Amino acid sequence: MSRRCDITGKGIQTGNNVSHANNKTHHKFESNLQDKRLFVPELGKSVRVRVSTRVLRTIDKLGFVGALKKYNLSLKDVTK
């Protein structure tokens, strides 16, 4: 399973650690992903998704279907 948000597509970013002597070493910035089970009233059942914590805040504010509309997705895109 890839480390990618099911809703936003947010994934790993790469960059460099830069020391005081300006030495550069590769570094991975992993997004904060959480496996969640969310209840969808429209379907009447729970859905398992892997989402970033930023999307969890959006879901708290707008609801699951509202968050999907914000990112131009439907329930079919997220359910497996």
| DSSP helical segment count | 3
Strand content: 35-45%
Shape: elongated
Largest beta-sheet details: 2 strands, antiparallel
Distance between the termini: 13 Å
What is the C-alpha radius of gyration, as a whole number of Å?
Answer: 16 Å
Biggest sheet, spatial arrangement of strands:
1-2
Give me the strand/helix succession. EEEEHHH
Which secondary structure elements does this structure contain, and how are they paired or packed?
Layout: E1 13-18, E2 24-29, E3 33-40, E4 45-52, H1 53-62, H2 64-70, H3 75-78
Antiparallel strand pairs: 1-2, 3-4
Helix pairs in contact: 1-2
Describe the protein in words.
It is a single chain. By secondary structure, the protein is of the alpha+beta class. It has helices spanning about 55-60, 65-70, 75-80; strands at about 15-20, 25-30, 35-40, 45-50. It has a two-stranded antiparallel ribbon with strand order 1-2. It has a two-stranded antiparallel ribbon with strand order 3-4. Helix 1 (about 55-60) crosses helix 2 (about 65-70). The longest helix is centred in the C-terminal third of the chain and has 10 residues, at about 55-60. The mean pLDDT is about 95.
Identify the notable features of this structure and list them briefly:
about 80 residues; alpha+beta; two-stranded antiparallel ribbon; 3 helices; 4 strands; about 25% helix
Please provide a brief summary of the model:
This protein has 80 residues and is an alpha+beta fold.
